[in-house]
């Protein structure tokens, strides 16, 4: 829950920065990329919080692994998009390969959801 809370606060801060601080520097496409990163981080903050609460009731390894997948997935998915945005604004086009990391983060987020589903299905009250 602490990690979810901190990542939620970070999402709010980055979202506000994107809405107010990046407009004068970023192209519309880069702003959209940044916004996608913030949205996915926010969505998965709630998934992580839910997983944390459920782990308190059903302390099974699948939920723990789901939480780890959500954290790592947010880092890779949103983090790569944040970096790509900032580096592109700074004129560093040699880091476009960061976009290739994003799908790995997306796969981890999907795995987190699947593990959450399986864990809940197997441990129904």
Keywords summarizing the entry:
125 residues, mainly alpha, 79% helix, elongated
Question: Could you spell the SSE succession in H and E letters?
Answer: HHHH
**Please, what is the average pLDDT?**
93
Radius of gyration: 16 Å
The number of helices is 4
- Report the major sheet: none
Describe the 3D structure.
The chain is an all-alpha fold. It has one domain (2-122). It has four helices and no strands. It has helices at residues 2-20, 28-57, 61-89, 102-122. Helix 1 (2-20) runs antiparallel to helix 2 (28-57), helix 2 packs antiparallel against helix 3 (61-89) and helix 3 runs antiparallel to helix 4. The protein is elongated.
SSE topology:
Layout lengths: L1 H19 L7 H30 L3 H29 L12 H21 L3
Helix pairs in contact: 1-2, 2-3, 3-4
Short recap of the structure:
With 125 residues, the protein is mainly α. It has 4 helices and no strands.
């Amino acid at each position: 829950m602490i990690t979810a809370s901190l990542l939620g606060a970070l999402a709010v801060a980055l979202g506000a920065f994107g809405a107010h601080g990046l407009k004068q520097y970023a192209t519309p496409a880069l702003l959209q990329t940044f916004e996608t990163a913030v949205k996915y981080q926010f969505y998965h903050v709630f998934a992580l919080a839910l997983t944390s609460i459920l782990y308190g009731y059903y302390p099974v390894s699948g939920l723990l692994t789901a939480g780890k997948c959500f954290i790592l997935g947010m880092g890779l998915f949103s983090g790569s998009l944040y970096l790509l945005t900032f580096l592109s604004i700074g004129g560093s086009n040699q880091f476009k390969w960061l976009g290739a990391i994003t799908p790995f983060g997306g796969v981890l987020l999907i795995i987190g959801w699947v593990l959450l589903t399986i864990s809940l299905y197997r441990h129904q009250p």
